[in-house]
Design goal:
The protein is α+β, with helices and mostly antiparallel strands and 272 residues long.
Length: 272
Amino acid sequence: MGHVLISPRMQHIESELTTTWLGHPTTVLAEVDSTNRWLKEEWAQRGKNHGVAVWADAQTQGRGRLGRTWLSPPGTNIYTSILVEPPKHRLTGIISIVAGIALIKAVRQITGMDARIKWPNDAVIHGRKFGGILVEAGTVPSPWAICGLGINVNSETDQEFHHATSLRQAHDALIIREDLWVALMTALESVYDQWLDAGDEWAAQEWTRVSATLGQEVLVKRPGGTSWTGLAERLDSDGGLWVVALGGQRRKIMAGEVSLRLKDGRYAPDSF
């Protein structure tokens, strides 16, 4: 790990936060296998509290949904995780929706681009994915959730993944990732607190404003291999996606992959 150099600003990034509880403390690492795994282990062993965060310059075993690998080179992107301990009566499944809203707010603030969320947790610009959210949650000894965010900020995405991009590529300009990380933490605290005050339906409405999925024709791949197409209609207050299948039957999707239909008739892959 010692061969990886972190910028002085990144090393002291917590001092720039104006948040009340989120990111205090923040641990900055040169390299880690996975920020989610690291934070989960710290919480289990040392009793880390609500709001603690970790930001790594590089990951060696970054993960996306469904066990996919998230490429995590050093010096270019954001790989960060936050621990929250929601009240017992709140659904931890909504936290990925909350995080998605915050991510889009932060990216729009820093870049001015029309970033959006594709259900359930892909961040996209003009249909191309630049970020993802991975939430792991449990109820023992009390409700907890670790929210991991991976953002392609200044990296060059592999041409093999032609549906992927980075913010720099989309914006055609270098993005200062420290600015984006601070904006992300600020937005996440604000959206999380509003969710606690206003409820799940509020979160669903806010997510709808920044959705890339609703109103689009989608291909749904359910666990077990069955696939079907329909029109993405609305997000439920529990985070489920209502899709109107051919023939008018409505189905709520809680798990699986949902791919958007492209102009050429193909369906964009869910994850990379």
